UniProtKB/TrEMBL annotation:
PANTHER family xrefs: METAL TRANSPORT SYSTEM ATP-BINDING PROTEIN TM_0124-RELATED, ZINC IMPORT ATP-BINDING PROTEIN ZNUC
One Pfam family per UniProt: ABC_tran
Family: Belongs to the ABC transporter superfamily.
InterPro entries: AAA+_ATPase (IPR003593), ABC_transporter-like_ATP-bd (IPR003439), ABC_transporter-like_CS (IPR017871), Metal_Ion_Import_ABC (IPR050153), P-loop_NTPase (IPR027417)
Highest classification ranks of the organism: Bacteria, Pseudomonadati, Pseudomonadota, Alphaproteobacteria, Hyphomicrobiales
Keyword Electron transport: no
ABC transporter domain ranges (all copies): 13-228
Gene3D superfamilies recorded: P-loop containing nucleotide triphosphate hydrolases
Protein name: Metal ABC transporter ATP-binding protein
SUPFAM superfamilies associated with the record: P-loop containing nucleoside triphosphate hydrolases
Annotated GO MF terms: ATP binding
Length: 280
């Protein structure tokens, strides 16, 4: 089972006033960050704002120069990198990619590929995968470890808008099913981040934090991301306002039954530039 082990009720990772200093300057400073089981936390910020440094500090790849970082004992981390260096001239199937870092039973591999939604691509050559499929293959690799904490660095890079929605939906499903904590890195708030519990906006320090809606409205965020913050960004809301019946009709929360769900999906758009329909 791709199920994280139930540990203590405390945070998976907790950073308090953490700072990292290199070559005489603070790369990040004063970072407070907590990820609990079942929680999705997203770090956003411009290039060079310290997102990767913060994540590496959170998972213990680098030690803080000030402040504290506490992790749950024996915390298992699954990491989905932003990029991998693969020699594309060599043939490499998805199955081999999954086995590059260690032996893996067929069952575990199938389960992880299934969880990432690419079971049908096990035998495919990695170089033929689309951007979204490749991200899913990297995600499957991380899921094999049955992580308590899943860390994804820019998960929707090279993925089109509908692929972006599908990937965020998958990330949420993984969280719902396994109960793991998820730490996402992104350069900006994405339209589908409404499922994120907490957004932390970095620029060498924490500029602002809160729900996606609150961060979107905060003057610090608008200052950092400029006019496009208000003009082009839409927050996608998925309202679970109905139940699908076996005959294809839907029952709404008020008990009425409708033929289709489309007309009953309500979407909020903070900026209104992107329209997206919920597939139900
Ligand atoms: N070991 C190091 N020594 C000196 N400077 C470093 C070191 N590692 C990172 N930096 C610098 O620290 C800053 C923050 O880097 P970091 O990779 O954390 O940013 P980021 O927000 O993840 O950026 P991006 O969005 O471009 O991936 C950058 O200016 C980077 O050049």
């Amino acid at each position: 089972m791709l199920q994280s082990t139930a540990g203590s009720a405390g945070p998976l990772v907790e950073m308090k006033n953490a700072g990292v200093r290199r070559s005489g300057r603070w790369l990040v400073r004063g970072v407070d960050l907590t990820v609990r089981r079942g929680e999705i936390v997203t770090l956003i910020g411009p290039n060079g704002s310290g997102k990767s440094t913060t994540v590496k500090t959170a998972i213990g790849v680098i030690a803080p120069d000030e402040g504290t970082v506490r992790r749950e004992p024996a915390l298992k981390v699954g990491y989905v990198p932003q990029k991998v260096s693969v020699d594309w001239t060599l043939p490499l199937s998805v199955e081999r990619l999954m086995r590059l870092t260690g032996p893996l039973t067929r069952g575990k591999m199938d389960e992880a590929l299934q969880a990432a939604g690419i079971a049908h691509l096990a035998g495919a050559e990695v170089q033929t995968l689309s951007g979204g499929e490749f991200q899913r293959a990297l995600l499957a690799r991380a899921l094999v470890r049955e992580p308590d904490l899943l860390v994804l660095d820019e998960p929707v890079q090279g993925v089109d808008f509908s692929g972006e929605i599908a990937l965020y939906q998958l990330i949420r499903e993984i969280r719902d099913r396994t109960g793991c904590g998820i730490l996402l890195i992104s350069h900006d708030l994405h339209v589908v981040m409404a499922e994120t519990d907490t957004v932390i906006c970095l620029n060498g320090h924490v500029c602002c934090r809160g729900t996606p809606e609150n961060v979107l409205k905060s003057p610090e965020y608008v200052r950092l991301f400029g006019a496009r913050a208000g003009d082009t960004l839409a927050i996608y809301h998925h309202h679970h306002d109905h139940t699908h019946l076996p005959d294809g009709r839907v029952r709404l929360t008020d008990g009425t039954v409708a033929e289709h769900c489309e007309e009953h999906h309500a979407h909020d758009h903070a900026g209104g530039a992107k329209e997206e329909r919920d597939a139900g």
